[in-house]
Design goal:
The chain has 15 helices and 13 strands. It is of the alpha/beta class. Helix 3 packs parallel to helix 5. The structure holds 4-nitrophenyl beta-D-glucopyranoside. 4-nitrophenyl beta-D-glucopyranoside (PNW) binds next to loops. One of its GO terms (molecular function) is beta-glucosidase activity.
Length: about 450
């Protein structure tokens, strides 16, 4: 597919690509790194497909120079990566591991030397295991330790990293990690997940305040939420009500406090069986609502909500995501390998929803969007027309949202390279670059060449 008929983007639009520490770095014992909840989880038999682990992953820790050279070839202006908390503070708190900071100093210098702007995420799910052992995100202490970690890391790198993202997808940390149990730490709880969601928000606010206090210059502070546009599957009143519940869980639990200044209206109907909210303190909203310089949005698919009975009849055993909704997208939509439905206009609708729902919405960066397909290496090359079509459609949707008046400043394709796809292990490939894990050879896919054409226009 040619890029010649793709609409143009505003001057200064930031084109990028994204990864995360545990998904690519490997080197889990190098230079004093401590264990994280993902080391523990991936080494638990049956937790990850194929019992894959991030022990080696893409060995990016040792191959970052080659990977930055690929980004330079790709022509992107920016790279979004995450910093592994257990490399900086192996016990989660206390003494700082300078060797861990040094890795990110080297990476950032390499990016800057190649004219690529670094965007750092402080937490992409690799919580130091000792903090989980002390309660993890269920307890307020973790939020306070997170702010300390943010301050230490920002003090070391803030002079060279202009974009700081506190958390990646707190929804996944709280609800997939503590309710569904498909991600580390693998808990299945109701109350614990809601406490985790709250402490993640508090940790975000404390971290922004701490970093802003010691700001070096013009660096900007934001958070990345995964969000989905929600439509009722039919116009039956029960499905319309289900869509309200889905929108609350998928989006508003985080976006209402962060962008609207209040906990979501109607949330108690959802959490009815959970009545202990003592983890919320009176002044927490003031902490959570620190002004954001930008909002990061990750989006892969839209949702179509259908009313459905709760899966677990005993309310005491229900997890927090069991809200009487099933996702029922139109059958005609194509599917990726996940198998997530593909409907690019869902991204436009989501961005417009954000603008309409939150007056004063800060500038938005699409910090992740992309797709997994069953790529294969044939005669030394990977042809991935489905991924190109996916990206083409979603870029047109972003452009249409800008035309609709949404202030979108950049787009980061997930992912720079194939990597450890969490519960799916290495079986799902999202990369613009194919990774042959047996040899660690990197092979740019045809989507890489296509995206090169997009970002160079
Ligand atoms: C995001 N879901 O995760 C993450 O930020 C990335 O680390 C990940 O590789 C990427 O999307 C692709 O999955 C998600 O179940 C994981 O809806 C799961 C879901 C959404 C996003």
């Amino acid at each position: 597919m040619s890029t010649s008929d793709l609409p143009r983007f505003p001057d200064g639009f930031l084109w990028g690509t994204a990864t995360a520490s545990y998904q690519i770095e490997g080197a889990v014992d190098a230079d004093g790194r401590g264990p994280s909840i993902w080391d523990t989880f991936s080494h638990t038999p049956g937790a990850v497909a194929g019992d894959d682990t991030g022990d080696v992953a893409c060995d990016h820790y040792h191959r970052y120079r080659e990977d930055v050279a690929l980004m330079k070839d790709l022509g992107v202006g920016a790279y979004r990566f995450s910093i592994a908390w257990p490399r900086i503070l192996p016990h989660g708190k206390g003494s700082v591991n300078e060797a861990g900071l040094d890795f990110y100093r080297r990476l950032v210098d390499e990016l800057l030397d190649n004219g690529i702007t670094p965007m750092a995420t402080l937490y992409h799910w690799d919580l130091p295991q000792p903090l989980e052992d002390a309660g993890g995100w269920r307890v307020r202490d973790t939020a306070e330790r997170f702010a300390e970690y943010a301050a230490v890391t920002h003090a070391a790198l803030g002079d060279r990293v202009p974009y700081w993202i506190t958390l990646n997808e707190p929804f996944c940390s709280a609800f997939i990690g503590y309710a569904e149990g498909r991600h580390a730490p693998g808990a299945r709880e109701g109350h614990g997940a809601l406490a985790a969601a709250h402490h993640l928000l508090v940790g975000h606010g404390l971290a922004v305040a701490a970093m802003r206090d010691q700001r070096h210059g013009t660096e900007r502070f934001g958070i990345t939420l995964n969000m989905n546009h929600v439509t009722p599957a039919t116009d039956a009143p029960a499905d319309v009500a289900a869509a309200g519940r889905a929108e609350l869980l998928s989006n508003r639990v985080f976006s209402d406090p962060l962008l609207g200044g209040s906990y979501p209206v109607g949330e108690h109907a959802l959490w009815g069986r959970i009545s202990d909210f003592s983890f919320r303190r009176d002044d927490d909203l003031a902490v959570i609502t620190q002004p954001l310089d930008f909002l990061g949005v990750n989006n892969y698919f839209p949702e179509y909500a259908k009313d459905a009975p709760s899966q677990e009849p005993d309310p005491r055993r229900r997890v927090a995501t069991d809200i009487g909704v099933v996702d029922n997208p139109p059958a005609h939509l194509p599917r990726t390998a996940m198998p997530w439905p593909v409907e690019a206009d869902g991204l436009r609708r989501l961005l417009v929803w954000l603008r309409d729902t939150y007056p004063g919405l800060p500038p938005v960066y699409v910090t992740e969007n992309g797709s997994a397909y069953p790529d294969s290496l044939v005669d030394g090359a990977v042809d991935d027309p489905d991924r190109i079509a996916y990206l083409d459609g979603h870029l047109r949707a972003v452009r249409a949202a800008i035309d609709d008046g949404v202030d979108v400043r950049g787009y980061f394709c997930w992912s720079m390279m194939d990597n450890f796809e969490w519960a799916y292990g290495y079986a799902k490939r999202f990369g613009l670059v194919y990774v042959d894990y047996a040899t660690q050879q990197r092979i740019p896919k045809s989507s890489f060449r296509w995206y090169q054409g997009v970002v160079s226009r």
